[in-house]
Amino acid sequence: MMHMTFYWGRTVTVLFDSWKTESWLGYALTLITCFLVSAFYQYLEVWRFRLILLGAGAGGGVAANTSGIDAPLLHRKVAGKYSAARIAGTLMFGVNSGLGYMLMLAVMSFNGGVFLAIVLGLTVGYLVFRSGNEEATVIVDNPCACA
């Protein structure tokens, strides 16, 4: 029977019937895996934001202003609708969405340790990979792991 409220204990099934923990070692490895996957999600988000910037024309994708007037909102975009950067960004969005939903489903195991490991992993991943990246923060800063 699946738990419908938070519980604490080493016995947990995460995502698949074959991913069950019965021992403290298995439970600890599961928590470490959840933590690392959560931090990796934040790392992938950094790369996705970089691809968004590249596809939008920032950092060399915008045509040079030849009129002598500095009007950044009037620059013509060079990158096409189906440029390599946009396609890569779209693929990265799909990977990130899938990973985010997997994290959400892992939290839905309702195990307190899994929940804390994922939230802590997202937090540490944000601190390490995203907190110093103001460009990406301006674009989108969504704390939801599945967005």
UniProtKB/TrEMBL annotation:
<keyword id="KW-0187">Copper transport</keyword>
<keyword id="KW-0812">Transmembrane</keyword>
<protein>
    <recommendedName>
        <fullName>Copper transport protein</fullName>
    </recommendedName>
</protein>
<feature type="transmembrane region" description="Helical">
    <location>
        <begin position="24"/>
        <end position="44"/>
    </location>
</feature>
<keyword id="KW-0472">Membrane</keyword>
<dbReference type="InterPro" id="IPR007274">
    <property type="entry name" value="Cop_transporter"/>
</dbReference>
<keyword id="KW-0813">Transport</keyword>
<feature type="transmembrane region" description="Helical">
    <location>
        <begin position="110"/>
        <end position="129"/>
    </location>
</feature>
<keyword id="KW-0406">Ion transport</keyword>
<keyword id="KW-0186">Copper</keyword>
<dbReference type="Pfam" id="PF04145">
    <property type="entry name" value="Ctr"/>
</dbReference>
<comment type="similarity">
    <text>Belongs to the copper transporter (Ctr) (TC 1.A.56) family. SLC31A subfamily.</text>
</comment>
<dbReference type="GO" id="GO:0005375">
    <property type="term" value="F:copper ion transmembrane transporter activity"/>
</dbReference>
<keyword id="KW-1133">Transmembrane helix</keyword>
<dbReference type="GO" id="GO:0005886">
    <property type="term" value="C:plasma membrane"/>
</dbReference>
